[in-house]
């Protein structure tokens, strides 16, 4: 739908708010209300990706969100070139017990499509995903 816009984002909370504003501006403006459960999933994915960038990626280097015909694409840039081990096997099942690492990656894989991890030429990496958004059911 639109070109990516870099939001003024410096925390998981501001990233969630920005992602929600993209849904409202693009989906609602197009005359179709987004399914609230999908917006909640979007906010969970955004929180996980931004928090991971801050905690494990050397800090947040950038955040982008833009609407597509299928949902919202998110791109989170950080300063680390290390690719998360869990991202190397996107087919891994959700863990049944907690083994010291988080549940973030399995949730991201479950709630998104088109997960990509790319090294940036200027250093660091970008993790991008598509979070599907469906129209709300008519009342």
From TrEMBL:
Residues 16-125 form the Histidine kinase/HSP90-like ATPase domain. One of its GO terms (molecular function) is protein serine/threonine kinase activity. It comes from the Bacteria. Keywords: Kinase, Serine/threonine-protein kinase, Transferase. The keyword Kinase applies. Gene3D superfamilies: Histidine kinase-like ATPase, C-terminal domain. SUPFAM superfamilies: ATPase domain of HSP90 chaperone/DNA topoisomerase II/histidine kinase. PANTHER family: ANTI-SIGMA-F FACTOR RSBW, ANTI-SIGMA-F FACTOR RSBW-RELATED. This is Regulatory protein. It comes from Streptomyces cyaneogriseus subsp. noncyanogenus. The lineage of its organism: Bacteria, Bacillati, Actinomycetota, Actinomycetes, Kitasatosporales.
């Amino acid at each position: 739908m639109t070109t990516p816009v870099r939001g003024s984002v410096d925390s998981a909370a501001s990233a969630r708010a920005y992602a929600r504003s993209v849904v409202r501006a693009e989906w609602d403006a197009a005359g179709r209300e987004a399914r609230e459960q999908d917006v909640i999933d979007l906010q969970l994915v955004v929180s996980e990706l931004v928090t991971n960038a801050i905690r494990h990626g050397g800090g947040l280097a950038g955040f982008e969100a833009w609407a597509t015909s299928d949902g919202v694409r998110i791109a989170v840039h950080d300063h680390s070139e290390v690719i998360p081990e869990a991202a190397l096997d996107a087919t891994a099942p959700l863990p049944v017990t907690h083994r010291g690492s988080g549940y973030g990656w399995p949730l991201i894989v479950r709630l998104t499509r088109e997960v990509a991890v790319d090294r940036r030429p200027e250093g660091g990496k970008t993790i991008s995903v598509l979070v599907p958004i469906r129209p709300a059911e008519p009342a």
